[in-house]
Amino acid sequence: MAEEDKNGAAEGLPPPPPVPPDFTPVKSEPEPVKKKAAPRLPMARRGLGNKGQKIQILTNHFKVNVTNVDGHFFHYSVALFYEDGRPVDGKGVGRKVLDRVHETYDTELAGKDFAYDGEKSLFTIGALPRNKMEFTVVLEDVTSNRNNGNSSPAAADEGPNESDRKRLRRPYQSKSFKVEISFAAKIPMQAIANALRGQESENSQEALRVLDIILRQHAAKQGCLLVRQSFFHNDPKNFVDVGGGVLGCRGFHSSFRTTQSGLSLNIDVSTTMIIQPGPVVDFLIANQNAKDPFTLDWAKAKRMLKNLRVKTSPTNQEYKITGLSERSCREQTFTLKQKGKDGEGDEITVYDYFVNHRNIDLRYSADLPCINVGKPKRPTYFPIELCNLVSLQRYTKSLSTFQRSSLVEKSRQKPQERMQVLSNALKINKYDAEPLLRACGISISSNFTQVEGRVLPPPKLKTGGDDFVPRNGRWNFNNKRLVDPTKIERWAVVNFSARCNIQGLISDLIKCGKMKGIMVEDPFDVFEESPQFRRAPPLVRVEKMFEEVQSKLPGAPKFLLCLLPERKNCDIYGPWKRKNLAEFGIVTQCIAPTRVNDQYITNVLLKINAKLGGLNSMLTVEHAPAIPMVSKVPTIILGMDVSHGSPGQSDVPSIAAVVSSRQWPSISRYRASVRTQSPKVEMIDNLFKRASDTEDEGIMREALLDFYVSSGKRKPEHIIIFRDGVSESQFNQVLNIELDQIIEACKFLDEKWSPKFTVIIAQKNHHTKFFQPGDPNNVPPGTIIDNKVCHPRNYDFYLCAHAGMIGTTRPTHYHVLYDEIGFSPDDLQELVHNLSYVYQRSTTAISVVAPICYAHLAATQMGQWMKFEDTSETSSSRGGVTNAGPVTVPQLPKLEEKVSSSMFFC
């Protein structure tokens, strides 16, 4: 009715079509509709870069041909049940059950092969005969502990007679399973072809996932350990001992990737950590670094062994360890039922049973606990020396510093060696024999893909006297003064019981500083730790040292040089940094002076100079200032990273760090803001944090205000964001959740201000490597690749900015998700390359842009503060966990005003 009136009023002018759009807004008055903008999507490539010298490069992508693009993958969901209808919850048994279904019901399945992911999904090429199918299969000898049902093997209800034992054991060991397979979805293979044209969809991701599942299943059939898309064979040739009962196991990563030149299979060497197989006792001795089994800490051993799988001799049965016996083997008793008698049995010790009833000689187990493989209510004990750890069991705890360096040393490979290993991997894997890949019409080339790279020239750097061009990504400060040296004054040395010639160290610092242009005054004093506190807890040692310093110094020092007794993992480091930076605002440098030479002293001075507000070197274009898009318009550069607790620590808060540039037009000076957030959360949730109508307590406000104050009261009109550590599946969240928060923080400061953004992700954990054909060396620093193996549509490129000195260079994969500023490909690539040369801690180009490295350092350093929190604080915050609410995240103490915008992390 209303419409007619309206048209009537318009006196029969043109027909209605234009009216509805005109009319709907009247109905939906409220504003919010405008707010729901379409989500931002990663941008398309703007073109290729041209700068640099062309270079031919090989990469570990192998071309894949797909001929069957008209077919369909059919996705079925799989449900497994025991015969009594209970769902099967245990992992690991699924593959065995489905293999058995495949063998037993071949005709019902119309002879089809399928790809099973080991859990709830199964894929076939073309449809199965029916949309819902049910099968029952029987598996003998299911060794997974979950399936032992009521059988209680060794030291339980059996008589001593061996043949009886076998007869008794059998019926328990075979199990029936019911399998339901029901149709879920149909995925056109055409989707793969679409993805290669840059039209990615749900379907294309699913289709590629099916191909990856086929690879996983192919490896599982060869008895490999599977870790995501990596496969590890049980071959001792691939094991390296890294200490502590842990082995590095070398295997392969392989996954299908869509690239500009079509589909490729990316194969790389990969390493996972496994438990040293063999006698349990040998593992425990290595793990605890003990002399013999009698000095082991059994509480620790119990935690370490839980859920590991062992084979027991002499029967070679496989079980899962559920715990250890309370008492030793010769004291631990159980009830041995007599054959033919119901109910009662004799109490007997485990030792007595194995030695006298089973005639097994025990050499050293008598006084050690037994291994329990039974249920809590029905334990089943084995003497420890009859238990051998099964091979290929993952070790998921974090490695010690010693283990990590041992692993790096033993697993690195020069480029040529790595190429050889990868070529062999292709041969070993026999993908052409995989029936499912054949059915897809997939064939895989055995040649490394050749791509054209470019080597960007290194940027010119400026020091105190002259400009120079780094060679091979490296330079030094021999006979050079720093570009902006500071003064080291009002300072002192504190020594936490480190052995070294302190007077010699001080005179070296003064002498070396003078050559670099840094005026180093004589220190006020050297404070030696009193021997009585050497064994005290770290917090106490730090407190006592501070009392000493405060009692002797006339006022607060500007700088403290701290000598630590051990180089890595020194537990004084966290509390010391926290005390200096959060409570007193004192700049501090920690060193563990083992081998002190000129180079060492220079490196220490570079860090101190940067922390005290100086600058060691800078880009000539930054001084000129002549950086495209950055020097003409106030521009802030952000580096963002989140670091998580090591695996196995689920309740350690994650730490988000945002590093921001200051004193525009500089791109070499930065500050950091660091916050804790919920464990394992990758998105930064404190960028904007409204506390009230006028209060924003977020990270961005701090960064923006500091930029404004340090850049002559200018607001940044360009904001360039480098984000580390997110996978492709999270790009949209960075673009829509994090970027929205940053925009909100800007609007909160000034409603009318709308800066332009560029968002770039840096990834290090991918598997693309580059090699020079016929050259044993790594690709030269500055090598950039933006064609052939890059994404068919999106704007990404690989850059090796650094000189790989050991092993094979790992390029950084940069993804440009968003660019309102409007860089040309060459200008943007050059900016990223330049930012690899402004890292003040070292005299080399680094592998990823400096702001990201700094964010990483800041998060790691402040993570150390948390580690040694006074235990009462953390326990109250964790002890208060009820099932209802999440863990409260303890907040980090704030940096003291005087150091809050310093490069304390340098």
UniProtKB/TrEMBL annotation:
GO terms of biological process kind: defense response to virus; regulation of translation; regulatory ncRNA-mediated gene silencing
UniProt xrefs under InterPro entries: ArgoL1, ArgoL2, Argonaute_Mid_dom, Argonaute_N, PAZ_dom, PAZ_dom_sf, Piwi, Piwi_ago-like
Region (Disordered): 1-48, 143-170
Keywords annotated in UniProt: Repressor, Ribonucleoprotein, RNA-binding, RNA-mediated gene silencing, Translation regulation
PAZ domain segment(s): 279-391
Gene Ontology MF term list: RNA binding
This protein's name: Protein argonaute 4-like
Organism of this sequence: Nicotiana sylvestris (Wood tobacco)
